[in-house]
């Protein structure tokens, strides 16, 4: 929790941002950066897993890389120890998020091994649709009544995409 909180790159530029519109532009930049790096990290993983019988050795070594990367960010970007001010509940929720990520990544790694990147990656990234529904129902970030048609259309397009991927694979 502390590593993620105090090593977030936004801490480097946040004091320089003056308007909400600047936050949006920078936020979109970080989101596109995340999309790029998420897509790139799958490539070396797929290459390594092709020579392995199981995904678990890759999974463990990638975990080590994640820890080294988080520590590097922590020491390079900031050592503000802000994590000491976080409540116990927030620490536990962050740990739960990490545990859920491990389960998700284990599922992704297994599907990459079995289906290949071109099929498994888009299917695994349907989490966007699930996240929108979850954000609407639980977090109340989007009004379901106002956005029902768009959400339903997105779900249909996602399911059609899965069907096309499966058909392309067979």
Automatic annotation (TrEMBL):
<dbReference type="Pfam" id="PF00892">
    <property type="entry name" value="EamA"/>
</dbReference>
<feature type="transmembrane region" description="Helical">
    <location>
        <begin position="118"/>
        <end position="139"/>
    </location>
</feature>
<feature type="domain" description="EamA">
    <location>
        <begin position="27"/>
        <end position="166"/>
    </location>
</feature>
<feature type="transmembrane region" description="Helical">
    <location>
        <begin position="151"/>
        <end position="168"/>
    </location>
</feature>
<feature type="transmembrane region" description="Helical">
    <location>
        <begin position="55"/>
        <end position="77"/>
    </location>
</feature>
<protein>
    <recommendedName>
        <fullName>EamA domain-containing protein</fullName>
    </recommendedName>
</protein>
<dbReference type="InterPro" id="IPR000620">
    <property type="entry name" value="EamA_dom"/>
</dbReference>
<feature type="transmembrane region" description="Helical">
    <location>
        <begin position="92"/>
        <end position="112"/>
    </location>
</feature>
<dbReference type="GO" id="GO:0016020">
    <property type="term" value="C:membrane"/>
</dbReference>
<feature type="transmembrane region" description="Helical">
    <location>
        <begin position="23"/>
        <end position="43"/>
    </location>
</feature>
<keyword id="KW-1133">Transmembrane helix</keyword>
<keyword id="KW-0472">Membrane</keyword>
<dbReference type="InterPro" id="IPR037185">
    <property type="entry name" value="EmrE-like"/>
</dbReference>
<keyword id="KW-0812">Transmembrane</keyword>
């Amino acid at each position: 929790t502390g590593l993620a909180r105090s090593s977030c790159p936004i801490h480097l530029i946040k004091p320089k941002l003056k308007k909400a519109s600047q936050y949006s532009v920078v936020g979109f930049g970080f989101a596109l950066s995340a999309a790029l790096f998420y897509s790139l990290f799958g490539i070396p993983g797929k290459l390594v897993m092709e020579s392995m019988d199981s995904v678990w050795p890759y999974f463990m070594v990638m975990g080590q890389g994640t820890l080294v990367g988080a520590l590097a960010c922590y020491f390079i970007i900031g050592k503000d120890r802000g994590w000491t001010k976080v409540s116990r509940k927030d620490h536990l929720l962050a740990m739960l998020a990490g545990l859920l990520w491990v389960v998700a990544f284990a599922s992704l790694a297994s599907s990459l091994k079995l289906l290949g990147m071109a099929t498994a990656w888009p299917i695994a990234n349907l989490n966007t649709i699930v996240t929108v529904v979850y954000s609407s129902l639980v977090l109340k970030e989007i009004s379901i009544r106002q956005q029902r048609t768009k959400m339903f259309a997105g779900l249909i397009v996602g399911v059609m995409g899965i069907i096309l991927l499966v058909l392309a694979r067979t």
